[in-house]
Amino acid sequence: MAKFTALITLQPGADRAAFARNIGDTTLAQPTLPGVFDGGDLILHRQVANEAVPSDAAIAHIDSAVYEPIGGGAHEPGLRNGVYRCLLLAVKPGTPEATVRQFESETLAMPHYIGTIRNWRLSRVTKASGARVWTHVWEQEYADIGGLLGPYMTNPYHWARVDRWFDPECPEWIVDTRLCHSFCAFERSVLNP
Amino acid sequence: MTAVQIIDDLVARPGEGKALLDAYMADYAPGARARGMVLDRVLVSPPLWMDDQPNTLTIVWNVEGAAGWWGMRLAAGADPSATAFWETAGARLVSRARRFAAAPEDVETLCNG
User: Fold this and answer.
1) Best mutation target, B6, B70, B88, B95, to test chain A (most A CBs within 10 A)
2) Which of A11, A31, A76, A119 has its CA 20 to 30 A from that of A189?
3) What is Dmax (Cα atoms) for chain B?
């Protein structure tokens, strides 16, 4: 089933919490945490392909995607009071399909090596808007922020293996350097409630 | 802290090995040093400059652990000259690879942060 995520950037001075409370029917509507990179002020997520975002003068920019999962898993279904992380990325046009599949396969192997990833899902985008024509959404859940900022970043499987797809200095580079790296707190698991 | 090696394996077009290495040292190495990379060694294989067959250059840099690696990576992302060098060098290259490695005794430390 299709999913929808929007990373919403608000005008300076807008009340993020108030905006999140009034956004209507969503699975998740949470202010982002410090440290996001082009990740917006709010993450809005729905488990259905309802891409409607209420029109509001407080909105400055939206990066969003409707997407179909191609893989995922759960080490801790029903996780509560954790951290949800979403990466929107755009594989460069013309990348051979076999290369894209290898990139997807290696990305989906990250939880095998990085234990702090408790639940995860990789998806291909069917409809994108924002700064790039996003092609993939890579979502993970962690028990706490330390799992993302610590082992996810420091494990060699990330930086010495998967990152070469993202690194313009590596000949395997296929992912546009403009990414949306966003994360927020949640009460109930988004990926495996 | 644990040493991490950044290894560039460059296969030069026949007759271009010496010029490729000179360009790497003149146009890439200064920026790499500024990004925290410490040159460990340069190897030329086979150890003569050939004009009708490819030389392979292996250039090994060190950084300090995952933090040093990310420091290098983020600095390179903000430095257009890093990717500009590779675009220019392409004319002298048959192929290249960039690998990241560590001593076997450091693997567990790197994996467990």
Assistant:
1) B70
2) A11
3) 47
